[in-house]
Request: fold
Amino acid sequence: MDSNLIIKGAKIFDGISSKPRFADIAVSEGKIDKIVENLSQEAAVRSIDASGLWLFPGLMDIHTHEDLEAELDPSLPEVTRHGTTSVIVGNCSIGLAFGNQRVLDCDPIVDCFARVENIPKSVLRKTAEKATWRTPREYLEHLDSLPLAADIAPFLPHSMLRIEVMGMEASISRDPTKSELEKMSSILAEALESGYIGMSTDGLPLHYLANEPNVKKRIPTQYAEFKEYKMLTDVLRNYDRVWQMTPSTDNQGLAARLFMLSSGRIHGKPLKVTALAALDTVNNRLTKYTALLFAKMLNTKFLDGRFRMQALAAPFRIYSEGPISPLAEADPLMRQLIETELENKEKRVEILSDPDFIESFREMWNRGKSGFSANHLRRILKLESEFLTRDLRDMEIFRSPVPTWEGSNMAELYLRYQNWRQNPESIDCEEERYGFDQVGKSVRDDGEFFVSLLRTFDRDLHWNYVAANKDPEVVKKLLLNPGLIPGFNDSGAHVTNMAFFDGNLRALRLAMDESEELVAHMTKRLTSEPAEFFGLPPVCLAVGQSADFLLVDPQELACYDGESTVRYEYRDLFGCHQLVNRSEGLVAGVFKRGKEIWNGSNFTDLSGQKKLGGALRALPS
Reply:
């Protein structure tokens, strides 16, 4: 058989071997036909000289919300440009398995996604309009019909399952009846039979509904009791499928009980669990150690668990549009601002101008920063429970109505403000003087200065901070820990707040610092290992496997800095701006089923136009 494509001269990291090797690859009918050294000349539609490049299997992203983007742009450009050709969706208990689930004025996709993933409601409504199917099986068939450029493997999302069985209002106001629990279990079993890889739940105290009258209510999954989790995870256990969960950080007792559901010693058969997340957090140094402790304990022979915390390959940098910030939901004061509609600046200004709000914010901001108290001791020991930073030095301005502020941290800005207040002529920049004039001269401390900035500039002031993973060496150790699994990239989520779409490339970059053998091992961690854990078809470069792969320039990888490639781009299909990563020059080509979808600088005509990907179904256990 003549080959459709030949890749010659690349160094191959196949996702299986412990070392790379030089070989040529021939592709026929979308599958790898040959992998041999010095492949003899034969007829081929196309031959690519990849000398000097590295060849990897198409990478996996195990935690995304690309299910939304797939409906608007099936080319999935913000993952495929980075060489990711398989994504897992339906995470965090929310997804599209049941279609839009609209009933009268209830719009669950908008309600559940808008604040959890910080996506404008206008984008979500566009997605909901396309979600016309009704059952999980029909959703898989729908995915198979799209011109996808990557494969999509869905979880059954628990919040949507509760809404389907109980209705929105009941799902957040009462416990399910016995018959409702049985119906949930039955639907889950049917979904697993059709190929779903498992079920997702969520317990983070950050995730709230976005539509009135329920803006003070959390998403439905968080109203489940242990009995409900136990019944549904028993279904997963029977099918040997995966439970994606996020522990309840404000109920550690429940979190520990849920973790123990992985134990085969206690429950007769192990349950595969992947949990968010093993992070080296700035405010609480115990977060990382707790994750490592549970991973080590549950995966012992004695407890016989299958427990994998997810580890992020990048600094956990949070981007915020003024007061709109995903981690700010944990603070009741900031939550008041996020509960407002995005366009309702007037309401936020009203809240931020309230003297009682300002005093409460100053009290929260200064808590534990001085004096002799338990809060002060926790701050010194880095054992705080706050998600949001309370230090202006951590807050870097990304975009601003005053261009000279961009790149500065807010502490530097506050110092210049204090100088301006004493002597306005000390500030040379007229735009900066005007900005400070808008803030006013009544600010008493740095906390009130932050409030004044939010009140004055609202969502036009973009700032960011690193909440975790500042030390690359610690990150690398987490990524390589066998009890953890690389993930938590959140691709397609947090449209205006996070830009972690290149997490796989960053993981390879960290490994490259040490050796090519470690790059080979990291490749396994990003391909064959997660595929096996999630019960999916093999992801590797081997004869007979799907010809999904990417070419990488090792010289570009060696100097790649994913922190410097963040861009704020307008997406026509979304009708809004999005934070993205641009790794130009690094990925020289991306191929799906042997067809090139990214040529190193642009997407090809096939991307998003030809059906190359589809629903990725779990293998029978």
